[in-house]
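New to this. Help decode the following:
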Amino acid sequence: MINFYLNSDSLEVGSELTGSCIWTPSTQKKEKSLKLIIGWRTEGRGNVDKEALYETELKPSERSYFKCNIPMAGPISYDGQLLRIIWEIAVTRRNWLGLQDTLQTQVFRVIPRS
């Protein structure tokens, strides 16, 4: 089980996302570590764009704290008909092919400065 704890689920550009994550492994799988990634990605028509701004390793049954600055240039979250810009925290693991499988995500919004 993976639990996220965030300071806010909606942040202005230029602000800081802080929080923690606890990974409690199931007894069936013997994974030694997982990776926590904070960044944004696009969904919709055209090519997928993405950028990771923060990465750290998670260890079993330990609380991992994170702090990530959201750039002033954004991008801001967007949910249109043809395109979505999604900010998220993703927990991934390497599969047997060496590729990353996403196990769980937590979405948060990035909004313009008021």
